Queue: 2 jobs
Job 1
Amino acid sequence: MIRKLRPDEINSFDLDFLNFQTTEEVPPNEGFIGQKRAKEAIETGIRIREKGYNIFVTGMTGTGRRTFVQMMLQDVAKKLPVPNDWGYVYNFENPYEPKAISFKAGQGRRFKKRLEDLINEVVEALNKSFESEEFARKISEMEEKYALMRKQLWESLEAKASELGFVVQLTPAGVVMLPVVDGKPLPPEAVNALPDQAIREIEERQMKLKHLVDGTLYRIRKLDIEFRKSLEEFHKRTALFAIDPLFVEVESEFENEGVKEFLESVKKDIVENLLDFLRMDARERKEIYMRKYSLNLIVDNSDLTGAPVIYETNPTYSNLFGKIEYYVRGGFLHTDFSMIRPGSVHKANGGFLIVEAERLLSQPYAWYNLKRVLMESQISVENLEHTLGVSSTITLKPEKIPLDLKVVIIGTPYLYELLYELDPDFRKLFRIKAEFDWEIPRNELNVQKYVSFISSVCREKNLPHFDRGAVKRVIWYAMRNAGNSTKLSAVFGDIVNLIVESGELARLEGSEVTTSDHVLKAYQAMENRRNLLEEKYDEMIKTFDLMIEVTGSKVGQINGLTVLDLGDHSFGVPVKITAKVYLGRPGVVDIQREADLSGKIHSKAVLILEGFLGSRYAQDFPLSVSASISFEQVYSEVEGDSASLAEALALLSAISKVPIKQGIAVTGSINQHGEVQPVGGIVEKVEGFYRACKTRGFDGEQGVIIPKANAKNLVLKDEIIQAMKKGLFHIWTVETIDDAIEIVMGMKAGRVTKTGKFERNSVNYLVYRELKKMKKLLDGVPEERKKKKRKGKK
């Protein structure tokens, strides 16, 4: 069925159901517009706390995925409990394996400060105790007692030596025993001068004395050991007496088994290393104690309300999982528990972590390790070089921390499909897929939300508010971006850009409000920044470098429509499609396909075209015609099936020799039944041919044929609507190829009569007749000879 669209049917919508003059009267938008499917999916992922129900959010860039996810998670996180703080402390049994301590939220910071105060108090208490007069007096008494006992042992030795006729002297070289003769000690050389009998007697007595000396020296050494031990025990008792109340007080403030165990270890270590403490000066004591007896608080949730929501913009391995830092001393690398640094996974523990898929996958080992910690439900800190086993540096092995984390990855549908197909772990860990739509229905509720959204942007960016005309123009732009007059674009990044540029233009002109003209100027400025190639193509059409014809009629030639997509800008360009027929091997030759300039979809479309020709015209005889179809002046690959209707019309024109109006361009695909199917890029195609007609000059007969199903996709510029109103440009919708035949060829297509033949003097009849004629020629039966035989029979 042929239908010529009226200008008032295109871009038709109003804001009569909304009562406002400017967006200043409209309250700002709360929440998000549309995306019900994504919202429900994310809610499901949040609700299910089982391992593996992490969320992968997919959708086009600019649909507000990250903002939506952050807002939604923050709302949910406020209602969740604040997770624990975490810190690392020195491990006195194995310094290379720091211990992790968990605190209730806020207690980690308080314990860290309390620990610093405690160590200061300990240092001060020990200094006072060991420098007190009472301590000095006790030490003096112990030393006097020891000296007296030592003196008594020595005096006893001297008395026994005197009985044996010797004197003993204590020298740096040891104990010297000298025999006494006539009341005088004899030196060794004098002893050697005595008679042999006297020497033997002295040696016998000296042996007895030596046993006595050894015994006395042993008792003195034992006394020394006992004295040092008692001195050490006294220091420990003094230290414990001074610091124990301080530790008891801190332990009572924190009902935490890890804290209690750590404080006991600290107290024990201080007591066992008192001699080192006493040898240090005050500055050294404080520095070493503060480093060793401190808390490295890696997760501090004291300022949180609810669970954390962390968005990691640079998900490197160390940014996600933390690292162990080193410092150089004496030319060597050193580290300790205080050099452990947390990652985003630590900070988000108990809450939510948001990362961009593309950034995550581009970082070495980050994706692998994220999967590992999610599977193990534990997180530790280990540098990448040690994880990979490429470093021999001695490092720490911190205790692992339990992990309760919901990860939300934001990425493209392509990355989701890639991970789903190639990574079995991905399916286990990310069972929730939240898809963001790129469009939303254009109903009164969503339009109202759009107006509120414009109001929000104006308030947030401090822009002049939009009047009704400006709002209507933004809605028009949203429909145009969606490519559907019944939809609105959900790619809000583009909408914000238009609002900002329009508002800034209004401000530049000194206007208190943003009008439709400002929005239109901003839109045109945005296009002008990107449409250089489009203008070059228009110029080539104007100068006939692109040999497009928009007037007259030609056999086997038609204007098709194609779209060039440059990423940030797409535009339509008419393309001349020609068809030639001749006797030969039956079939349709696609010149683009033969030259390897045809994509698979286009090749399929040509095969469908062959099926259509055969099913419609070759029921009584086989096709005996060769045909070639070419996209003229196209030197890149042709893909898609949107030109199959134009190709079919060109081919039918070439066979029937009925000319086609060159002022009419055609887009649409056909199936084997000859039905016209919808295609993409309708707006760009219509506007592309309009520009070509405008460049060459209107004759009042020009226009575009589109599939009926594509009528809703028309969101055109005002210029084209005005041209339609003036009768300079037309748009027809068709349902079948026969509808298109009647428009472009100016003849009826021709139905099949009761006799099974096409109506006479119709295009289908002429096609059928010519194909039958070609079959006979191919069989070697000339038409003239056949007529003579018929006359002879008569």
Job 2
Amino acid sequence: MRLLRRYVFLWMVLFLFKRLDGQILKVDWRTSTEKLLISGKQPRFSWEWSVKDGAADHFSGITGYQVIVGSKNELEKIINSPSPEMAMVHTGENSGTGLMWNSGKVISGNLLYAYYNSPRQLQSDHLYYWAVRVWNQAGKPVRWSPLDSFQTALYKRKDFEGAKWIGKSQLRKSDRILPGDTALKVKGKDGVIKPLPFGTENDSLPLFRRVFELSGQNNNIQRATLYISGLGQFEASINGKKVGDHYLDPGWTNYQKEALYVGFDVSDLLIKGQNAIGVSLGNGFYYVPNKKGWYKKLLVQYGYPKMICRLSIHYKDGSVQNVVSDESWQTGSSPILFSSIYGGELEDGRIQDDNWNKAGFNAAAAGWKSAIAVTDTPLVLNMQQEDPVKVMEKFTPRSAMPVLSNGDNSKVTGWTFDMGQNCSGIPYIEINGKKGDTIILKPAELLQDNHAANQKATGNYKLVYVLGKDGLQKWHPEFTYYGFRYIEVEGAVPKGKQNPNRLPVVEHLETWHIRNSAPEAGQFSCSNDLFNRTNALIKWAMKSNMVSLLTDCPHREKLGWLEQVHLMGSSLRYNFAVLPLLKKALSDMRNAQTPDGLIPEIAPEYTVFTWGGDMFRDSPEWGSSSIIVPWYIYEWYGDSTELIKNYDMMVRYRNYLKGKAKDHILYQGLGDWYDLGPNPPGTSQLTPQGLTATAIYYYDLTILARTASLLGHKEDMDGYIKEAKEVKAAFNKLFLHMKPARSGSITAYYGTGSQTADAMALYMDLVPDTLHDAIVRNLVKGIVKSGYKLTAGDIGYRYLLCVLEKEGYNEIIFKMNNRSDVPGYGYQLAHGATALTESWQALPTVSNNHFMLGHIMEWFYSGILGIRLNLTQASDNDTNLPLVIEPQMVGDLKWAKGSYNSVYGPIQVAWQKSAHHIELKVVIPVGLEAELRLPYHKGAKPAGVGLSQLTVKKIGSDRYFVTKVRSGHHLYSINTK
């Protein structure tokens, strides 16, 4: 059973075929038969239309929709009735029958989705059905879709039917280490700070089990759902078989405030007679062990691992059986003797009993005890909304290299396997040896000169496995992961290599790449090989940092640094269906917000760094994700619910920033992090302190003003507009510099005239209108003078690209990034990177799998493909359409093709050019109209359907042929000879 978000997308694909006269000939529906588990009481039903090649459907083709929700039998009567209106009158929403909701015919400009809106509330743990139909432009209803189903989850804590949080033991409240506690020390009962002990009996992970029998008549199960949470992570099984295919469930949260549960359809795992549920728990971020010899970035210990679950079994006779977690469960020790999200894992296979999660296991003889009900539990238990983490790809070794002893090249101490790709993942090994043999796996991004794993920049991480029997065994870690390309193996020899010491033999080795399983939303390729490789480079860093939150890196930190969410958000949404992850990030921000309104740089905030002062906690460029991301969701997905839900957080953070400002200027924070200056990367080198923070502050205020207007808070809106004007004036007074130029014009620049300073002032609309062109000239002049080298960092580079694109300087973007001789994307590739690195220089001393600098990805879609979608634009305004198609055929590019799966459906662009000809193919989904901008060539006349309204328009520094294009498949050509 697939889990969906609170506002669930029940995707349906509608194919529309039209005659030349515009009349609908036929409507075919294709629906998913998958049951969907939702947790919201007002789910969002949505659908999308697509058009076949050669067909077209205009926005006016569909004029309304109707959604019905209820029982299967009742809805089948309605949709099969020759008079469905009469059938619905006889049933009615409040008649006590199976029709829960009838939206009626809805005539609206929004044909994307409908929210459940009925006086009859959906009940938790229930199965419902729904269908939709539409009206054509002639006002005639089109036949109903087939029924689709969804299942509601558990709305409240009481819906767990008496289930308790249980554990093997409970950490004393006085021993808990929570975010904000001193890094490696904690106060004892006497108030004196004391060193923490290293290692406890609770280093071994707990196991839980429960045996039960089916109770329903004839054991005829209709459906069975396991609702379960385990902190920090869990693996569940029924009758010895793993439940689902997730990894590292549930998602990480601020455990003082919230924990997440997950739901699984387990109908096929239950059998007649006795059944056994088994649950193994991992530490995750809930309990980071403090043990010598094992790496930890931070130390946080909310409590020892614990779990809660309800198995809900619905029988065909209407009865329901619940199996819940309580003291009747038994608990024992796992063979995993140590596990850390940061340090790795140690498992002793000799104490593994493969029958522990089966009904016939003798728990008493094995020394198992009754579980205890624990009280140190999170305040709230919510259903996980983001897509689960799964094993998404697998890699096998490209080569194996001997690890040579330092100073003795003749002595082999181990073997290192090159897996070919740096990614987030876990090793999977098949090893042939003797019981008690021990192997150690050390994954790494880089290698030392002797082929040993180089973990100097990423933390000392290891995986230890003691073979549990003689012969071939298969093993992988359960509750940890790392970022790596190479795997060093100690204590074993690759198959086929000399083995004088009769060590275990590595029969097979794989990297299992794990990431958030969000579906891909876009594809891009072009004729430029460097750009294709750059696209893959960035995409691997994205995939490696998508788990239950967006992390900075998959090894040394695994933390949710927030600047990436808004700065890389657009690049992410072009590539993956990340809306659930963005909503999860906002939830984490709400939970992380302090009483005085601060949004810290990391959410969830598992540690408060004690070094660097507030520099690594209070940066407006990071915390402003709390304001910017809800607005971006509105722009990208047409969903204003996140603005409503997060408005209070947004206002409180603005109040915090206002309180920190000195004469309307903010000075705190990291600035343009990792810009390219004369010193090693870190805090901003080229842009003065306060410039980027104040620019973001102004941007926040403009967003808040638009949000307040949208939500009807006029008084708030007026206040934000006034404050924004004051910040703009102060910004220009402090950072704007002007001087006469020899040509008689004015030279103007911001701060030091860095790429970031000028670009952010332009992007945020801080530049006075009379100086706009002067600032653009200065920005472009500086880039050209530097030999087209980039210097902007984490904060500034996205804005630099956006401004150059908007102003028509796409050729400059091409020249800056189509090279390998200076630090940048090509430079990283030339130095062997397979995922985007933390520094432009691909330094070995920092992470080599970060996605914070991947801003060029956005330009691949918005620039080279020219797909720009902003759903805040009015679709009925010919001069301001929501979709613009403006492909940039720059540099040596001969062709490009790609797609973006928007909320309306796939937007596709493919173009190719030769010396005297340009051809462009565009697919626009139903419901959208686009402004098409074709490259202007004097004397040329574009050919194609719908070009009768063609005009010539200057946009930025370029001229275009411009026309309005409706939905459908379109082909255009321009002879430029």
